[in-house]
Description:
This protein is an all-alpha fold and 203 residues long. Helices cover 69% and strands 3% of the residues. It has helices spanning 10-30, 36-49, 66-73, 77-92, 100-121, 126-153, 160-169, 171-191, and strands at residues 54-56, 59-61. Strand 1 and strand 2 form a beta hairpin. Helix 3 packs across helix 5 and helix 3 (66-73) crosses helix 6. The two termini are 30 Å apart.
Amino acid sequence: MHISDGVLPISITVASWAVSFGGAAYSLRCMKNEDLPKVAVVTSAFFVASLIHLPFGPTSVHLILPGIVGALLGPVAFLSIVLGLFLQSILFQFGGLTALGANALMMGLPALFCGLLFQGIRGKTVLSHTIAGAVCGGLGTAMAATVLACLLATAGENFVGVAKLALAAHVPVFLVEAGVSAFTVSFLFRVKPELLTTGRFRT
């Protein structure tokens, strides 16, 4: 789920960069020194998961993980997404530097939303945490795929079909990510529940 350089109109590219810059600045404002190790680990997981692509017609699908990134990092999730995408762009040419803003927006906003949602619905039991993890995992991917389709639709009629296909191709990924996130949250709740504690969202 990467948009390549030159696909989107310049106006959308610039606007995406502006919003993504704001999202990264917000994450930096919320981050504390003690968050750095967890941010590094979660960013690494996001980086590696996005490298495994399965072809699906003119597009491809892979694990995206915005939901679990948001659940684990809360308001710092956007910065983690930006760092992971930047490294993918310069090391493997996934997406591109001019499209980095759009790609960060596509995955970062769902991550922030899921981080806020997870804090609100996780409850205090392993079951409630597992359900919250599943909801955030599936919903985060669904939101990212929807933003992807909307961004591609702005590129002209030639990309409308690709946008629809990209959205349909990620339907199975919704379910996979829900399961992965549920398992991850359940496991962490049992062995190291402090990793599920994130900073507060600032206004």
